[in-house]
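Researcher: Let's do a round of design. I'm pasting the structure tokens now; please hold your answer until I've finished.
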């Protein structure tokens, strides 16, 4: 069974709490925190949002440890992460993450992990990478950190694209001035804009958008 939680900002109060409630169990869950997307962020001077992600997870009994796929190959990744219960990918640079995934074979690991029925959680970049195509957010990303031609294809585990942080004042200029509406309008993939209090729960071929209060199932 495929079971994904795709958040806009897991550090937002109530989001991690809601996810944890759906998972049940009071014991700590061994969770890998994939920090690779953070490495691709142009502004390394203020990464307080990364700590907010960690706090949101820790306070809800996700027993996290940081891990990067940079410089690793698939056999090592499989061995290093063989005992994890939750796979979490942080926010950050989508295209840097995809480049490092291509180099390491990480996409294969993610798909195998999800197919096994284990839980996947993403925040911002970690949510967007699960779609088929990320070209609509290309203009919002820093591509200077890439060493290879940009790859806009996501992992393809959901049939929609996610635009996180919708309505957030912090991202207002970025969203209004850099979104490629031409590309979005021509896309054949549904686009879901999430504010920081919302997330998407995917179970097999169904999903629901949750604002921590209202829950409704949809199909895709």
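Researcher: That's everything. Go ahead.
Model: Designed sequence:
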């Amino acid at each position: 069974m495929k079971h994904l939680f795709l958040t806009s900002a897991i550090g937002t109060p109530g989001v991690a709490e809601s996810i944890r409630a759906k998972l049940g169990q009071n014991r700590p869950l061994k969770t890998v925190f994939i920090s690779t997307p953070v490495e691709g962020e142009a502004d390394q001077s203020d990464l307080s949002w990364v700590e907010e992600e960690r706090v949101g997870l820790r306070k809800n009994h996700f027993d996290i440890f940081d891990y990067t796929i940079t410089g690793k190959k698939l056999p090592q990744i499989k061995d290093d992460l063989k005992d994890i219960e939750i796979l979490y990918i942080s926010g950050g640079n989508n295209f840097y993450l995809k480049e490092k995934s291509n180099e390491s074979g990480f996409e294969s690991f993610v798909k195998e992990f999800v197919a096994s029925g284990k839980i996947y959680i993403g925040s911002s970049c970690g949510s967007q990478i699960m779609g088929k195509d990320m070209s609509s957010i290309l203009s919002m990303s820093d591509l200077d950190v890439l060493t290879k031609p940009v790859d806009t294809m996501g992992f393809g585990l959901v049939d929609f694209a996610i635009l996180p942080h919708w309505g957030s004042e912090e991202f207002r200029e970025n969203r209004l001035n850099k979104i490629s509406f031409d590309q979005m309008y021509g896309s054949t993939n549904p686009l879901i804009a999430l504010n920081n209090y919302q997330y998407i729960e995917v179970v097999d071929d169904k999903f629901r958008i949750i604002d921590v209060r209202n829950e409704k199932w949809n199909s895709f």
